[in-house]
Amino acid sequence: MKVSVNGTIFEQKDALVSIADKAVWYDFGVYENIKVLQGKIMWPEMHTYRLFKSAEIIGLHIGEEKERILQWVRNYAEVQKLKDHIIKICVYGDADKNARATVYMFAIGLTFYPDQFYAQGVKAITYQGERNFPTAKSMDTLVNFIAFRTAKERGAFEAILIDREGNAREGSRSNLYIVEKETIITPPLEDVLEGVTRVLVLKLLEENEIPFKEERISKDRLMAADEIFITATSSNVMSVTEIDQQKIGAGAPGEATKQIIQLYRTMQKEYLGR
Amino acid sequence: MKVSVNGTIFEQKDALVSIADKAVWYDFGVYENIKVLQGKIMWPEMHTYRLFKSAEIIGLHIGEEKERILQWVRNYAEVQKLKDHIIKICVYGDADKNARATVYMFAIGLTFYPDQFYAQGVKAITYQGERNFPTAKSMDTLVNFIAFRTAKERGAFEAILIDREGNAREGSRSNLYIVEKETIITPPLEDVLEGVTRVLVLKLLEENEIPFKEERISKDRLMAADEIFITATSSNVMSVTEIDQQKIGAGAPGEATKQIIQLYRTMQKEYLGR
C-alpha cells in the first residue's frame, strides 16, 4: 500500500517522519479515518470539514484548501483502487514556525465485524480517563490506546471513558448513546468529538421523529440505561449489552437500538446508490 | 548530528519512523532528556531509572536491561563528542505485539538561559490542563506543547498547568514549588512527574534542614505564595516572580529561592568534579 504525502504518492516505506520532528514529538497533529465501502468514499466532505475544525481547536495551520485535500483523497482512493478500506489522514503541523503542515494519507483494511456483534450486542468496560482536547481529533491518543487495550485484555469490544466528574463521555473509538424510555441521550458537543456517524445518526433520529437529548451521562445513569449503543466510522451502530460484566437492560439489543441499526444501514445503502 | 537506534548509530536522516506505525500513531512511548554538561553526562542512572518507571506505568515493555541503555547513552555521547547538549531518549513500544521496543537517542543543543533570568526571575502564566498519565514521561504531550506555546505568545517563560480540581501541578516543562513562610511546598508524587531535578532539590533541602512538604497547591495558594520556583533538567532552579501578570511576593527572587539556586549550583559543580 502506498502513501500520499501532500498529494504526491510514495511507497509506504518512504512515508516516514523524523524521530526528532517536534510535531511528532509533541503530537501536534490531527487525523481522520474515512471509510471506503464498495469503492465509494463515504462522506469525505464531513471528514475534511472536521479535520479543519480539529486543526483550528489545537491551533494547527493546515495551509491548504479543504477542496484540495478532498482531491488528494479521491486521487489516492482511485490510484490505490481502494474497495473496502479506511483512509487515515494524518496532518502534522509545523511546531516551530507557522508554515504549512504535512498531510499524510494511507489506507488500512476496513474491519467487518461478525453479524452476531450486531445481533447480540457487544461487551464494554468503563475506563477512567478523558482526552485533553475532547472536541478535536488530535494525535494525542495514548489514553484511547490504553483504554482500548485494557478492554481487549478483559475480553470486551470497547472501553467507555469516564471523566473526572464521573460522567461517561465516549468510547475509546466511538460515540456513546443511552436509551431511557425511548429517548436517546448522548453527551453534549462541548465534552466529546462530533463523530461523523454521530452527525448522521442524530439526523436520522430527527427525520424519524425519535426523541433525543444531549445531556451529560453519569456512570450510574449509564449502568441503569434501558439500552446503550455506540457509533463509529468502522463499526457503524452497535449495541452494548454488558458493561463491566453487568447486563444493560435485558442484556440484549433493545428495540430502539435495533431500529437505529436498521435506519443507518438503509441510509448507507442509499448513499452507496443501491 | 547522528541518532542511536537500539544502540547502533545512524545518520539523523535515517532515523525515521513510519507514519503508519501504531506506536507513533497512538503515542505509545516514553522519553527522557539527559543533560550533558562540559562533556559530562549528568545523572544518567536517575534518567534511565525513570525511563523504566514511565514505561511500566503505561505498560510498555522495553525488552532491554537498564545497564545496556546506559551503555548506549555513554557510547552515543562519546562517539558524538557531546559537550553541552540534551540527549533525548525516546522509546516507542510495540503497539501490536508485546515485542521489544525501539530505543532512539539524539542530541539537541543545551539551552543556557541569560543570567538575568536567574537573578530577576521569570514570568509564567497559568494554563488549564493536565497530562493523562501525570506520573509517566509519556510521548502524549500535546497539552504541554500548547500550554508552552500559549506562554510564549504572552511573553512568559513557562505555563503552570492547573488541573480540574483547580490545583497547580507542574510547569509545561518543569516541576513547581512554592515558599510559604520559609517552608517549601511541592505537589505530591501521585499528581506529578518525579523530575530528576526535583529529586536532587528535595535531597538538598533535607541535607540543609530546610523544611518542605508535599501538598496539593490550589491556584489561590499559588498566587498568594511568598516565593515560587520551578526546576527542570535544562533550566535547573529558576525563580518565578510573576504569574498571569500578577507579582508573586515582592516580585523578585526571594531568599529561600536564591539559597536553593546556590545550593543546586554548588552540587552541580561538585558532580562535575570542579
Automatic annotation (TrEMBL), chains A, B:
One of its GO terms (cellular component) is cytosol. GO terms for biological process: amino acid biosynthetic process; carboxylic acid biosynthetic process. Keywords: Pyridoxal phosphate. Its cofactor is pyridoxal 5'-phosphate. One of its GO terms (molecular function) is catalytic activity. SUPFAM superfamilies: D-aminoacid aminotransferase-like PLP-dependent enzymes. Pfam families: Aminotran_4. Belongs to the class-IV pyridoxal-phosphate-dependent aminotransferase family. PANTHER family: AMINO-ACID AMINOTRANSFERASE (PTHR42743), AMINODEOXYCHORISMATE LYASE (PTHR42743:SF11). This is Amino acid aminotransferase.
